[in-house]
Design brief:
rod-shaped; mainly alpha; 93% helix; 5 helices; single chain
Length: 294
């Protein structure tokens, strides 16, 4: 059994433990609040990162599309540049042939053709005498022979002119593709810059998210430790209360036993009085009634 001093110490211990539990509970609530705050921050950063990842995927898709466009424009530009080089080489060969054909000849082929056309037209318009018309006709024949003899030069000139026009057209197309290529490359640089900025931002946010997660884990661990302390103190209070209750019950049982023993002694004395036919008091009668009831 506990002595009064021990009992008082136990009660005082319970008071101290309850105060400790109160303080621990307050610390637990603070730690819990911090834990929730860091968790919410972590989740908020997670959503923000997810949004940026979706955005950077779109930018990457656009970059890939622009890269394909750049490659196509380069191929088209290079194709026309190659064509221009081939045509220039071809026109050089034609010019060489023309120079070779013109050596030793001062014939103006186009002038001859114009002469033929003018003479033929004059015959149609003017009513020449037979002799003069015959002379003009003879001249036309000679001019036509001279023209036919130099027709290769005309063809070379026409071919050279056509190729020259084709060179100009191909150059213009190549220049147009080059301009589009420059514009697309500038656009690509802007998108590349956006991609790098998004990548950097995602990296920084992930670092921040990791810090918040570490803080969350610390607070969670602190909450678990405080809960364990609180439970330990509560169990200690319950144990002391149980010990005091058990001691009180034991004392009550002893008191009951002592009371029963005292009553039993009194009943014995009253019965002795009856045997000796002594006069019973009111208290004696009450004792007998209580004994009969039991």
């Amino acid at each position: 059994m506990l002595s009064e001093e021990e009992k008082l110490k136990s009660i005082e211990k319970i008071k101290l433990l309850k105060e400790e539990c109160k303080n621990i509970k307050q610390e637990f609530e603070k730690a819990k609040e911090q834990r929730e705050m860091h968790f919410q921050k972590k989740e908020s950063l997670k959503k923000e990162i997810s949004t940026l990842i979706f955005k950077i995927r779109n930018v990457k898709g656009q970059n890939d599309s622009v890269s394909n466009t750049i490659n196509q424009l380069k191929q088209q530009r290079d194709s026309y540049n190659k064509k221009v080089k081939e045509l220039i080489s071809k026109i050089k060969d034609l010019n060489t042939k023309k120079v070779s054909m013109l050596k030793g000849s001062l014939v103006n082929v186009r002038g001859i053709k114009e002469q033929i056309d003018d003479l033929e037209k004059s015959i149609e318009i003017n009513a020449y005498k037979y002799d003069k018309e015959q002379k003009i006709t003879e001249k036309i024949k000679k001019l036509k022979k001279l023209y036919n003899d130099n027709l290769g030069l005309v063809k070379l000139s026409d071919e050279s002119r056509n190729i020259s026009n084709e060179i100009d057209s191909s150059k213009k197309i190549a220049d147009d593709f080059h301009k589009k290529l420059d514009e697309t490359i500038k656009q690509s640089k802007g998108q590349g810059s956006e991609f790098m900025e998004l990548s950097k931002k995602i990296s920084l946010l992930k670092q921040e998210q990791e810090k918040e997660f570490e803080e969350f884990k610390k607070c969670k661990s602190e909450c678990n430790n405080l809960f364990s302390k609180y439970k330990e103190k509560s169990n200690e209070i319950s144990s002391i209360n149980a010990s005091i209750s058990s001691d009180n019950l034991q004392k009550r049982n002893i008191e009951k036993d002592q009371q029963k023993k005292a009553i039993s002694e009194k009943v014995k004395l009253v019965k002795e009085k009856l045997k000796k036919e002594k006069r019973l008091t009111t208290e004696d009668l009450i004792i007998l009634q209580a004994d009969e009831s039991n």
